Fold this protein.
Amino acid sequence: MTTKITVLSLPGTGFPDSADPITADFHAQLDPTLFDIILVKYPATFGGAEDSYEVSRAAGAAAVYEALDALPSGTPVILSGYSQGAVVAGDVAADIFMRQLSQYNVVAVALIADGYRPSGVGLVPTGLTMAEGYGIAGQRDTAAYGVPTFWVSAWGDPIASLPAGNPLRTVADLVGWYSLKTPADAVNWGAKMLDAVVAGRLQDWWAPWKWAGWAGALAFARGYLFDGRHTLDYIRLGYTRTLAGRLAEFAVTGS
């Protein structure tokens, strides 16, 4: 490819209008002669006194489409995101492919700490091995995007590398609509949880064939809360640098 590629980048939870540290480091690694970077602003909330994750996720998708529509026709685009931003970028890429929205020239997808990362995929920094497990919310088929898709997932990150049998999966299944912003939001959260249970949409981490993954829930929770598995490891172990390098190769060769 000879034309500069525009990277539409979505930061993680808690960073609605600026890059979180992982996203900022990724941006710093991208070759400015090959890429233009646009930060997509969206709520980036996860419930509590704010809007729920699902509301934020939908608003993020709308913001990506708005950013796409603002670009000159034919602009080559890479959709990118970290954590919640990765899920939103994946949502839009999959939607564009499924609905065959040919007006958008999305040429690749780059996802950091994706909650829907499939098992066994991902770029690995030199000296490391592929992280186990898959996204805490499940696995999105690698074919769902229709374009080259690049993941990085750190070992021990419960958001992107959780063993199949880890009970933390139920947390992801039940907190999507978590919000106490208004009484109506709280009622809606309860209704959505009940719907998920009745409809059988919970991940079956408890299945006997997944017993090997039952151990370690506390270790994964600690890794998320205290040890930087979902945050600093992506910088200090070279995941952001590895992803940026692979995108540079893609920009030059088209593959």
Q: What stands out?
A: The first strand starts at residue 5 and ends at 10. The first helix runs from residue 21 to 29.
